Amino acid sequence: MIEFINIGKQFGENKVLTDVSDVMQTGKCNLIIGTSGSGKTVLQKCLVGLFEPDRGEIFYDGISFTEMNNQSRKELRQQIGMLFQGSALFDSLTVEQNVMFPLEMFSKMTNEERKKRVNEVLARVNLENANNKFPSELSGGMKKRVGIARAIVLNPKYLFCDEPNSGLDPQTSLVIDKLIYDITKEFNMTTVINTHDMNSVMEIGENILYMYQGKKEWTGNNDEIIFSKNERLNEFIFASKFLQDAKDMRMLEAKGIISDDRDMEEILKNGDKLSN
Amino acid sequence: MLKGMFTRPENTKMYWKEFMRQCVDIGIGSLGIVSIISVFIGAVSAVQTSYQLVSPIIPVETIALIVRDTVILEFSPTLVCIVLAGVIGSKIASELGNMRVSEQIDALEIMGINTKAYLILPKIAAAMLTIPLLVIISMVLGIWGGRLAGVASGIITASEYDRGLLTNFIPYNVTFALIKSYTFAFIITSIPSYYGYYVKGGALEIGRSSTKSVVVSCIMLLFADYVLTQLLLTH
Predict the structure, then answer these.
(1) Which one of A153, A227, B67, B108 is most buried, by most CB atoms within 10 A?
(2) What is the side-by-side strand order in the sheet with A215-220?
Protein backbone atom coordinates (compact mmCIF):
# COMPACT_ATOMS: atom_id res chain seq x y z
CA MET A 1 0.00 0.00 0.00
CA ILE A 2 1.22 3.46 -0.86
CA GLU A 3 -0.30 6.40 0.95
CA PHE A 4 0.41 10.02 0.15
CA ILE A 5 -0.83 12.95 2.17
CA ASN A 6 -1.07 16.59 1.07
CA ILE A 7 1.54 16.35 -1.69
CA GLY A 8 2.46 19.76 -3.09
CA LYS A 9 4.92 20.55 -5.86
CA GLN A 10 5.65 23.68 -7.82
CA PHE A 11 8.21 24.60 -10.47
CA GLY A 12 9.01 28.29 -10.07
CA GLU A 13 5.68 30.09 -9.96
CA ASN A 14 3.84 27.17 -11.56
CA LYS A 15 1.90 25.15 -8.98
CA VAL A 16 1.67 21.63 -10.38
CA LEU A 17 0.33 19.71 -7.38
CA THR A 18 -1.80 21.12 -4.56
CA ASP A 19 -2.43 19.01 -1.46
CA VAL A 20 -3.07 15.71 -3.22
CA SER A 21 -3.85 12.80 -0.90
CA ASP A 22 -4.88 9.23 -1.64
CA VAL A 23 -4.14 5.58 -0.94
CA MET A 24 -2.88 3.19 -3.63
CA GLN A 25 -4.12 -0.23 -2.60
CA THR A 26 -2.18 -3.51 -2.54
CA GLY A 27 -3.16 -6.14 -5.09
CA LYS A 28 -5.10 -3.64 -7.15
CA CYS A 29 -4.57 -1.60 -10.30
CA ASN A 30 -4.61 1.99 -9.04
CA LEU A 31 -5.14 4.45 -11.88
CA ILE A 32 -4.20 8.12 -11.90
CA ILE A 33 -6.15 9.81 -14.66
CA GLY A 34 -6.52 13.39 -15.83
CA THR A 35 -6.06 15.71 -18.76
CA SER A 36 -2.58 16.60 -20.03
CA GLY A 37 -0.95 18.98 -17.57
CA SER A 38 -3.13 17.90 -14.65
CA GLY A 39 -0.02 16.80 -12.72
CA LYS A 40 -0.35 13.01 -12.81
CA THR A 41 3.17 12.37 -14.15
CA VAL A 42 4.66 14.79 -11.60
CA LEU A 43 2.69 13.00 -8.86
CA GLN A 44 4.01 9.63 -10.00
CA LYS A 45 7.57 10.96 -10.18
CA CYS A 46 7.16 12.32 -6.63
CA LEU A 47 5.96 8.88 -5.48
CA VAL A 48 9.04 7.12 -6.86
CA GLY A 49 11.44 9.84 -5.76
CA LEU A 50 12.45 11.23 -9.14
CA PHE A 51 11.04 14.57 -7.92
CA GLU A 52 11.11 15.75 -4.33
CA PRO A 53 7.69 17.07 -3.26
CA ASP A 54 7.73 20.55 -1.69
CA ARG A 55 5.14 19.50 0.89
CA GLY A 56 3.42 16.38 2.12
CA GLU A 57 4.34 12.85 3.04
CA ILE A 58 4.56 9.52 1.21
CA PHE A 59 4.32 6.18 3.00
CA TYR A 60 5.23 2.77 1.54
CA ASP A 61 3.45 0.21 3.69
CA GLY A 62 3.51 2.62 6.60
CA ILE A 63 7.18 3.59 6.24
CA SER A 64 7.80 7.24 5.46
CA PHE A 65 9.50 7.58 2.06
CA THR A 66 9.92 11.34 2.43
CA GLU A 67 12.03 10.96 5.57
CA MET A 68 14.18 8.10 4.31
CA ASN A 69 17.91 8.62 3.80
CA ASN A 70 19.51 7.83 0.45
CA GLN A 71 20.62 4.34 1.45
CA SER A 72 17.15 3.31 2.64
CA ARG A 73 15.63 4.74 -0.52
CA LYS A 74 18.07 2.74 -2.63
CA GLU A 75 17.04 -0.42 -0.78
CA LEU A 76 13.34 0.37 -1.19
CA ARG A 77 13.80 1.06 -4.88
CA GLN A 78 14.86 -2.52 -5.40
CA GLN A 79 11.26 -3.37 -4.56
CA ILE A 80 9.95 -0.90 -7.14
CA GLY A 81 9.52 -1.68 -10.82
CA MET A 82 8.63 0.97 -13.34
CA LEU A 83 7.40 0.86 -16.90
CA PHE A 84 8.16 4.14 -18.66
CA GLN A 85 6.10 5.81 -21.34
CA GLY A 86 8.79 5.23 -23.99
CA SER A 87 9.81 1.91 -22.34
CA ALA A 88 13.31 3.35 -21.54
CA LEU A 89 15.09 0.19 -22.66
CA PHE A 90 18.87 0.38 -22.91
CA ASP A 91 19.51 0.77 -26.65
CA SER A 92 22.88 -0.96 -26.71
CA LEU A 93 21.68 -4.07 -24.86
CA THR A 94 19.64 -6.97 -26.21
CA VAL A 95 16.24 -7.89 -24.76
CA GLU A 96 17.86 -10.55 -22.60
CA GLN A 97 20.57 -8.17 -21.36
CA ASN A 98 17.97 -5.48 -20.62
CA VAL A 99 15.90 -7.83 -18.48
CA MET A 100 18.99 -9.34 -16.88
CA PHE A 101 20.46 -5.96 -15.93
CA PRO A 102 18.68 -5.56 -12.54
CA LEU A 103 19.55 -9.17 -11.69
CA GLU A 104 23.23 -8.63 -12.50
CA MET A 105 23.26 -5.45 -10.45
CA PHE A 106 21.37 -6.61 -7.38
CA SER A 107 21.07 -10.38 -7.15
CA LYS A 108 23.63 -12.97 -6.16
CA MET A 109 22.32 -15.51 -8.66
CA THR A 110 24.65 -17.53 -10.84
CA ASN A 111 24.64 -16.85 -14.56
CA GLU A 112 22.48 -19.95 -15.23
CA GLU A 113 19.97 -18.91 -12.58
CA ARG A 114 19.81 -15.41 -14.03
CA LYS A 115 19.20 -16.75 -17.53
CA LYS A 116 16.48 -19.06 -16.21
CA ARG A 117 14.76 -16.17 -14.41
CA VAL A 118 15.00 -13.95 -17.52
CA ASN A 119 13.41 -16.67 -19.65
CA GLU A 120 10.68 -17.10 -17.05
CA VAL A 121 9.68 -13.43 -17.08
CA LEU A 122 9.99 -13.17 -20.85
CA ALA A 123 7.67 -16.17 -21.14
CA ARG A 124 5.31 -14.48 -18.67
CA VAL A 125 5.01 -11.47 -21.00
CA ASN A 126 4.76 -13.75 -24.08
CA LEU A 127 8.16 -12.90 -25.54
CA GLU A 128 9.84 -16.27 -25.69
CA ASN A 129 11.90 -15.84 -28.85
CA ALA A 130 13.13 -12.29 -28.58
CA ASN A 131 16.15 -12.76 -26.29
CA ASN A 132 18.75 -11.68 -28.82
CA LYS A 133 16.86 -8.81 -30.41
CA PHE A 134 17.81 -5.19 -29.82
CA PRO A 135 15.16 -2.61 -28.80
CA SER A 136 15.37 -1.00 -32.24
CA GLU A 137 14.14 -4.30 -33.75
CA LEU A 138 11.00 -4.44 -31.58
CA SER A 139 7.49 -3.09 -32.12
CA GLY A 140 5.94 -0.65 -29.62
CA GLY A 141 3.95 -3.40 -27.91
CA MET A 142 6.98 -5.69 -27.65
CA LYS A 143 9.04 -2.85 -26.14
CA LYS A 144 6.34 -2.34 -23.50
CA ARG A 145 6.37 -6.05 -22.72
CA VAL A 146 10.16 -6.05 -22.36
CA GLY A 147 9.76 -2.99 -20.10
CA ILE A 148 7.26 -4.91 -17.97
CA ALA A 149 9.56 -7.95 -17.89
CA ARG A 150 12.47 -5.78 -16.71
CA ALA A 151 10.23 -4.10 -14.12
CA ILE A 152 9.06 -7.40 -12.57
CA VAL A 153 12.27 -9.45 -12.83
CA LEU A 154 13.24 -8.69 -9.21
CA ASN A 155 9.72 -9.53 -7.94
CA PRO A 156 8.89 -5.98 -6.88
CA LYS A 157 6.19 -5.11 -4.37
CA TYR A 158 5.29 -1.91 -6.21
CA LEU A 159 4.82 -1.42 -9.94
CA PHE A 160 4.54 2.00 -11.57
CA CYS A 161 3.41 2.38 -15.18
CA ASP A 162 3.55 5.71 -16.95
CA GLU A 163 1.11 5.77 -19.87
CA PRO A 164 1.51 2.05 -20.66
CA ASN A 165 -0.79 2.29 -23.70
CA SER A 166 0.57 5.40 -25.37
CA GLY A 167 1.36 4.83 -29.02
CA LEU A 168 -0.27 1.39 -29.10
CA ASP A 169 -3.23 0.18 -31.15
CA PRO A 170 -6.43 -0.67 -29.18
CA GLN A 171 -5.89 -4.41 -29.42
CA THR A 172 -2.30 -4.28 -28.17
CA SER A 173 -3.42 -1.85 -25.45
CA LEU A 174 -5.87 -4.43 -24.19
CA VAL A 175 -3.13 -7.09 -24.15
CA ILE A 176 -0.85 -4.78 -22.13
CA ASP A 177 -3.70 -3.87 -19.75
CA LYS A 178 -4.54 -7.52 -19.18
CA LEU A 179 -0.89 -8.35 -18.63
CA ILE A 180 -0.48 -5.60 -16.02
CA TYR A 181 -3.75 -6.66 -14.34
CA ASP A 182 -2.80 -10.34 -14.25
CA ILE A 183 0.71 -9.62 -12.95
CA THR A 184 -0.73 -7.37 -10.23
CA LYS A 185 -3.00 -10.18 -9.05
CA GLU A 186 -0.38 -12.91 -9.44
CA PHE A 187 2.29 -11.15 -7.39
CA ASN A 188 -0.09 -9.14 -5.18
CA MET A 189 1.65 -5.91 -6.12
CA THR A 190 0.62 -2.32 -5.55
CA THR A 191 0.32 -1.11 -9.12
CA VAL A 192 0.05 2.58 -9.95
CA ILE A 193 -0.82 3.45 -13.55
CA ASN A 194 -0.90 6.87 -15.18
CA THR A 195 -3.21 6.78 -18.14
CA HIS A 196 -5.39 8.67 -20.57
CA ASP A 197 -6.78 5.50 -22.04
CA MET A 198 -10.49 5.05 -21.39
CA ASN A 199 -10.34 1.34 -22.16
CA SER A 200 -7.86 0.96 -19.31
CA VAL A 201 -10.10 2.99 -17.01
CA MET A 202 -13.07 0.75 -17.71
CA GLU A 203 -11.20 -2.56 -17.85
CA ILE A 204 -8.69 -2.42 -15.00
CA GLY A 205 -9.56 0.70 -12.97
CA GLU A 206 -10.08 -0.87 -9.56
CA ASN A 207 -9.11 2.30 -7.76
CA ILE A 208 -9.13 5.52 -9.74
CA LEU A 209 -7.81 8.95 -8.80
CA TYR A 210 -8.97 11.69 -11.16
CA MET A 211 -6.82 14.83 -11.06
CA TYR A 212 -7.81 18.24 -12.28
CA GLN A 213 -5.38 21.15 -12.42
CA GLY A 214 -3.03 19.59 -9.87
CA LYS A 215 -5.76 18.71 -7.35
CA LYS A 216 -7.61 15.55 -6.44
CA GLU A 217 -11.04 15.87 -8.05
CA TRP A 218 -12.59 12.42 -7.65
CA THR A 219 -11.80 8.90 -6.47
CA GLY A 220 -13.64 5.66 -7.03
CA ASN A 221 -13.59 2.56 -9.22
CA ASN A 222 -14.63 1.65 -12.76
CA ASP A 223 -18.20 0.86 -11.70
CA GLU A 224 -18.65 4.03 -9.70
CA ILE A 225 -17.25 6.20 -12.48
CA ILE A 226 -20.31 5.40 -14.63
CA PHE A 227 -22.65 6.88 -12.07
CA SER A 228 -20.48 9.79 -11.03
CA LYS A 229 -22.17 13.18 -11.13
CA ASN A 230 -18.86 15.02 -11.19
CA GLU A 231 -19.13 17.29 -14.23
CA ARG A 232 -15.42 17.65 -14.84
CA LEU A 233 -14.90 13.92 -14.62
CA ASN A 234 -17.79 13.25 -17.00
CA GLU A 235 -16.44 15.81 -19.47
CA PHE A 236 -13.06 14.13 -19.34
CA ILE A 237 -14.12 10.49 -19.42
CA PHE A 238 -17.09 10.66 -21.73
CA ALA A 239 -15.79 13.32 -24.06
CA SER A 240 -17.10 11.78 -27.29
CA LYS A 241 -20.59 10.69 -28.34
CA PHE A 242 -19.29 7.15 -28.64
CA LEU A 243 -18.11 7.08 -25.05
CA GLN A 244 -21.38 8.65 -23.87
CA ASP A 245 -23.21 5.79 -25.54
CA ALA A 246 -20.86 3.29 -23.94
CA LYS A 247 -21.61 4.88 -20.57
CA ASP A 248 -25.36 4.57 -21.20
CA MET A 249 -24.93 0.92 -22.08
CA ARG A 250 -23.00 0.29 -18.91
CA MET A 251 -25.75 2.02 -16.89
CA LEU A 252 -28.37 -0.17 -18.54
CA GLU A 253 -26.31 -3.21 -17.72
CA ALA A 254 -25.87 -2.10 -14.15
CA LYS A 255 -29.62 -1.52 -13.73
CA GLY A 256 -30.28 -4.98 -15.16
CA ILE A 257 -32.19 -3.55 -18.10
CA ILE A 258 -29.94 -5.32 -20.60
CA SER A 259 -27.79 -8.37 -20.17
CA ASP A 260 -24.03 -8.45 -20.32
CA ASP A 261 -23.95 -10.03 -23.77
CA ARG A 262 -25.23 -6.75 -25.21
CA ASP A 263 -28.17 -8.16 -27.12
CA MET A 264 -28.94 -5.48 -29.67
CA GLU A 265 -32.66 -6.24 -29.82
CA GLU A 266 -32.92 -5.87 -26.07
CA ILE A 267 -31.01 -2.59 -26.20
CA LEU A 268 -33.28 -1.22 -28.91
CA LYS A 269 -36.38 -2.40 -27.04
CA ASN A 270 -35.27 -0.69 -23.86
CA GLY A 271 -33.91 2.37 -25.58
CA ASP A 272 -36.66 4.60 -24.22
CA LYS A 273 -35.82 3.59 -20.66
CA LEU A 274 -32.30 4.89 -21.20
CA SER A 275 -33.51 8.41 -21.89
CA ASN A 276 -35.47 8.37 -18.64
CA MET B 1 28.03 16.31 -10.10
CA LEU B 2 31.53 15.19 -9.11
CA LYS B 3 30.56 14.92 -5.43
CA GLY B 4 27.62 12.65 -6.28
CA MET B 5 29.90 10.20 -8.09
CA PHE B 6 31.73 9.01 -5.03
CA THR B 7 29.43 6.56 -3.26
CA ARG B 8 29.79 2.86 -2.58
CA PRO B 9 29.13 0.93 -5.81
CA GLU B 10 25.97 -1.19 -5.80
CA ASN B 11 27.89 -4.00 -7.50
CA THR B 12 31.64 -3.67 -8.00
CA LYS B 13 31.69 -6.26 -10.76
CA MET B 14 29.20 -4.28 -12.86
CA TYR B 15 31.18 -1.06 -12.35
CA TRP B 16 34.35 -2.87 -13.40
CA LYS B 17 32.59 -4.20 -16.49
CA GLU B 18 31.46 -0.69 -17.39
CA PHE B 19 34.98 0.66 -16.76
CA MET B 20 36.49 -1.94 -19.10
CA ARG B 21 33.86 -1.18 -21.75
CA GLN B 22 34.78 2.49 -21.55
CA CYS B 23 38.50 1.67 -21.75
CA VAL B 24 37.84 -0.18 -25.00
CA ASP B 25 35.59 2.61 -26.31
CA ILE B 26 37.89 5.47 -25.43
CA GLY B 27 41.30 3.78 -25.72
CA ILE B 28 41.02 1.26 -28.54
CA GLY B 29 38.31 3.28 -30.28
CA SER B 30 40.57 6.32 -30.58
CA LEU B 31 43.78 4.49 -31.45
CA GLY B 32 43.29 4.76 -35.22
CA ILE B 33 42.71 8.50 -35.38
CA VAL B 34 45.49 9.17 -32.85
CA SER B 35 47.97 7.10 -34.88
CA ILE B 36 47.15 8.83 -38.16
CA ILE B 37 47.30 12.32 -36.66
CA SER B 38 50.56 11.60 -34.83
CA VAL B 39 52.43 10.29 -37.87
CA PHE B 40 51.43 13.31 -39.95
CA ILE B 41 52.18 15.78 -37.15
CA GLY B 42 55.72 14.39 -36.90
CA ALA B 43 56.18 14.31 -40.66
CA VAL B 44 54.99 17.90 -41.16
CA SER B 45 57.13 19.10 -38.22
CA ALA B 46 60.27 17.59 -39.76
CA VAL B 47 59.64 19.08 -43.19
CA GLN B 48 58.70 22.54 -41.84
CA THR B 49 61.65 22.66 -39.44
CA SER B 50 64.07 21.87 -42.25
CA TYR B 51 62.40 24.61 -44.34
CA GLN B 52 63.02 27.17 -41.57
CA LEU B 53 66.59 26.07 -40.74
CA VAL B 54 68.39 27.80 -43.59
CA SER B 55 71.68 28.58 -41.80
CA PRO B 56 74.55 26.20 -42.63
CA ILE B 57 75.93 26.74 -39.08
CA ILE B 58 73.04 24.82 -37.51
CA PRO B 59 73.65 21.07 -37.69
CA VAL B 60 70.98 19.03 -39.50
CA GLU B 61 70.47 16.86 -36.38
CA THR B 62 68.68 19.86 -34.88
CA ILE B 63 65.65 18.92 -37.01
CA ALA B 64 65.25 15.68 -35.02
CA LEU B 65 65.74 17.52 -31.73
CA ILE B 66 63.06 20.09 -32.58
CA VAL B 67 60.63 17.46 -33.83
CA ARG B 68 61.17 15.42 -30.65
CA ASP B 69 60.61 18.33 -28.27
CA THR B 70 57.63 19.87 -30.07
CA VAL B 71 55.95 16.49 -30.37
CA ILE B 72 56.56 15.56 -26.73
CA LEU B 73 55.85 18.96 -25.22
CA GLU B 74 52.93 20.18 -27.27
CA PHE B 75 51.69 18.25 -30.27
CA SER B 76 51.11 14.85 -28.67
CA PRO B 77 49.42 15.93 -25.46
CA THR B 78 47.59 19.05 -26.65
CA LEU B 79 46.74 18.49 -30.28
CA VAL B 80 45.81 14.86 -29.77
CA CYS B 81 43.63 15.76 -26.77
CA ILE B 82 41.87 18.51 -28.77
CA VAL B 83 41.03 15.92 -31.40
CA LEU B 84 39.94 13.49 -28.67
CA ALA B 85 37.76 16.24 -27.14
CA GLY B 86 35.83 16.21 -30.38
CA VAL B 87 35.75 12.44 -30.82
CA ILE B 88 35.16 11.32 -27.23
CA GLY B 89 33.47 14.47 -25.93
CA SER B 90 30.68 14.52 -28.48
CA LYS B 91 30.15 10.77 -28.01
CA ILE B 92 29.86 11.07 -24.22
CA ALA B 93 27.55 14.11 -24.34
CA SER B 94 25.24 12.59 -26.94
CA GLU B 95 25.19 9.16 -25.26
CA LEU B 96 24.26 10.59 -21.85
CA GLY B 97 21.91 13.15 -23.42
CA ASN B 98 20.07 10.42 -25.27
CA MET B 99 19.84 8.35 -22.10
CA ARG B 100 18.44 11.34 -20.24
CA VAL B 101 15.85 12.24 -22.87
CA SER B 102 14.69 8.64 -23.37
CA GLU B 103 14.32 8.20 -19.57
CA GLN B 104 17.03 5.52 -19.41
CA ILE B 105 18.76 7.47 -16.62
CA ASP B 106 15.44 7.65 -14.73
CA ALA B 107 15.05 3.90 -15.22
CA LEU B 108 18.46 3.32 -13.61
CA GLU B 109 17.60 5.70 -10.75
CA ILE B 110 14.35 3.82 -10.10
CA MET B 111 16.34 0.59 -9.86
CA GLY B 112 18.32 2.21 -7.04
CA ILE B 113 21.52 2.83 -8.99
CA ASN B 114 23.61 5.96 -8.44
CA THR B 115 23.60 7.05 -12.07
CA LYS B 116 26.36 9.63 -11.65
CA ALA B 117 28.66 6.97 -10.25
CA TYR B 118 27.65 4.26 -12.70
CA LEU B 119 27.56 6.32 -15.89
CA ILE B 120 30.14 9.09 -15.38
CA LEU B 121 32.85 7.76 -13.06
CA PRO B 122 33.87 4.83 -15.34
CA LYS B 123 34.16 7.23 -18.28
CA ILE B 124 36.45 9.63 -16.40
CA ALA B 125 38.50 6.78 -14.90
CA ALA B 126 38.86 5.05 -18.28
CA ALA B 127 39.98 8.29 -19.92
CA MET B 128 42.52 8.92 -17.14
CA LEU B 129 43.98 5.49 -17.82
CA THR B 130 43.87 5.32 -21.60
CA ILE B 131 44.52 8.90 -22.74
CA PRO B 132 48.05 9.12 -21.21
CA LEU B 133 48.76 5.78 -22.94
CA LEU B 134 47.45 7.19 -26.21
CA VAL B 135 49.64 10.25 -25.73
CA ILE B 136 52.73 8.04 -25.23
CA ILE B 137 51.86 6.10 -28.40
CA SER B 138 51.35 9.42 -30.18
CA MET B 139 54.82 10.62 -29.10
CA VAL B 140 56.48 7.51 -30.49
CA LEU B 141 54.53 7.63 -33.75
CA GLY B 142 55.07 11.39 -34.14
CA ILE B 143 58.83 11.07 -33.79
CA TRP B 144 58.79 8.08 -36.13
CA GLY B 145 56.70 10.04 -38.64
CA GLY B 146 59.31 12.82 -38.59
CA ARG B 147 62.03 10.31 -39.27
CA LEU B 148 60.08 8.73 -42.08
CA ALA B 149 59.37 12.06 -43.81
CA GLY B 150 62.87 13.42 -43.21
CA VAL B 151 64.58 10.36 -44.68
CA ALA B 152 62.06 9.93 -47.51
CA SER B 153 62.45 13.54 -48.67
CA GLY B 154 66.27 13.50 -48.30
CA ILE B 155 66.32 16.23 -45.64
CA ILE B 156 68.18 14.12 -43.09
CA THR B 157 69.68 10.63 -42.95
CA ALA B 158 68.37 8.03 -40.53
CA SER B 159 71.56 8.03 -38.48
CA GLU B 160 71.63 11.85 -38.25
CA TYR B 161 67.98 11.79 -37.11
CA ASP B 162 68.71 9.14 -34.46
CA ARG B 163 71.72 11.10 -33.22
CA GLY B 164 69.61 14.26 -33.02
CA LEU B 165 66.96 12.46 -31.00
CA LEU B 166 69.49 11.60 -28.30
CA THR B 167 70.94 15.13 -28.11
CA ASN B 168 69.97 17.15 -25.00
CA PHE B 169 67.06 14.90 -24.14
CA ILE B 170 65.26 16.04 -20.95
CA PRO B 171 63.19 13.18 -19.39
CA TYR B 172 61.17 15.77 -17.41
CA ASN B 173 59.51 16.79 -20.69
CA VAL B 174 57.80 13.40 -20.83
CA THR B 175 56.64 13.80 -17.22
CA PHE B 176 55.30 17.23 -18.08
CA ALA B 177 53.45 15.82 -21.10
CA LEU B 178 51.91 13.09 -18.94
CA ILE B 179 50.77 15.61 -16.31
CA LYS B 180 49.10 17.54 -19.12
CA SER B 181 47.48 14.44 -20.54
CA TYR B 182 45.98 13.47 -17.14
CA THR B 183 44.54 16.97 -16.76
CA PHE B 184 43.20 16.99 -20.32
CA ALA B 185 41.71 13.52 -19.91
CA PHE B 186 39.70 14.79 -16.95
CA ILE B 187 38.57 17.90 -18.84
CA ILE B 188 37.49 16.11 -22.01
CA THR B 189 35.34 13.59 -20.13
CA SER B 190 33.91 15.57 -17.20
CA ILE B 191 32.65 18.57 -19.21
CA PRO B 192 30.76 16.51 -21.84
CA SER B 193 29.42 14.27 -19.05
CA TYR B 194 27.99 17.35 -17.34
CA TYR B 195 26.39 18.69 -20.51
CA GLY B 196 24.99 15.28 -21.46
CA TYR B 197 23.74 14.30 -18.02
CA TYR B 198 21.81 17.52 -17.45
CA VAL B 199 20.40 17.97 -20.96
CA LYS B 200 16.73 18.95 -21.17
CA GLY B 201 14.51 18.69 -24.22
CA GLY B 202 14.83 16.48 -27.28
CA ALA B 203 17.11 15.54 -30.16
CA LEU B 204 17.90 19.16 -31.03
CA GLU B 205 19.05 19.91 -27.48
CA ILE B 206 21.24 16.79 -27.44
CA GLY B 207 23.01 18.06 -30.57
CA ARG B 208 23.39 21.53 -29.10
CA SER B 209 24.73 20.29 -25.79
CA SER B 210 27.14 17.98 -27.60
CA THR B 211 28.54 20.85 -29.68
CA LYS B 212 28.67 23.15 -26.67
CA SER B 213 30.49 20.55 -24.59
CA VAL B 214 33.18 20.14 -27.27
CA VAL B 215 33.68 23.91 -27.59
CA VAL B 216 33.88 24.41 -23.81
CA SER B 217 36.21 21.40 -23.44
CA CYS B 218 38.58 22.77 -26.11
CA ILE B 219 38.69 26.22 -24.53
CA MET B 220 39.25 24.77 -21.05
CA LEU B 221 41.91 22.46 -22.45
CA LEU B 222 43.85 25.33 -24.05
CA PHE B 223 43.53 27.39 -20.89
CA ALA B 224 44.79 24.48 -18.79
CA ASP B 225 47.64 24.01 -21.28
CA TYR B 226 48.73 27.60 -20.75
CA VAL B 227 48.42 27.43 -16.95
CA LEU B 228 50.35 24.14 -16.72
CA THR B 229 53.08 25.43 -19.00
CA GLN B 230 53.42 28.56 -16.87
CA LEU B 231 53.51 26.54 -13.66
CA LEU B 232 55.71 23.66 -14.71
CA LEU B 233 58.04 24.97 -17.42
CA THR B 234 58.98 28.47 -16.30
CA HIS B 235 61.90 28.76 -13.92
Answers:
(1) B67
(2) A80-83, A158-162, A190-195, A29-34, A207-212, A215-220
Are A123 and A79 contained in the same domain? yes
Per CB-CB distance under 8 Å, the chain B contacts of A102 are 111
Q: Does B1 reside within a domain?
A: no
In this predicted complex, what is the ipTM?
A: 0.82
Bridge partners for A64 per DSSP: A59
Instruction: Give the 3-state secondary structure of residue A64.
Output: strand
- Condensed to tens digits (0 to 9), the pLDDT of residues B95-152 reads 999 999 999 999 999 998 999 999 999 999 999 999 999 999 999 999 999 999 999 9
Rounded Cα distance between B3 and B15, Å, is 17
> Which residues of A are less than 8 Å from B10 in CB distance?
74, 105-106
Q: With an 8 Å Cβ cutoff, are A75 and B113 in contact?
A: no
Is there a single domain that holds both residue A75 and residue A23?
Answer: yes
- N-terminal to C-terminal alpha carbon distance within chain B: 36
Last residue of a domain, one of A229, A249, A265: A229
Note the maximum CA span of chain A: 67
Do A46 and A168 lie in one domain? The reply is: yes
Q: What residues make up the domain containing A91?
A: 2-229
Burial class (CB in 10 A: 0-12, 13-18, 19+), B33: middle
Query: Cβ B103–A88 below 8 Å, yes or no?
Result: yes
Interface test with A, best of B102, B200, B206 (most A CBs within 10 A): B102
Global pTM value:
0.85
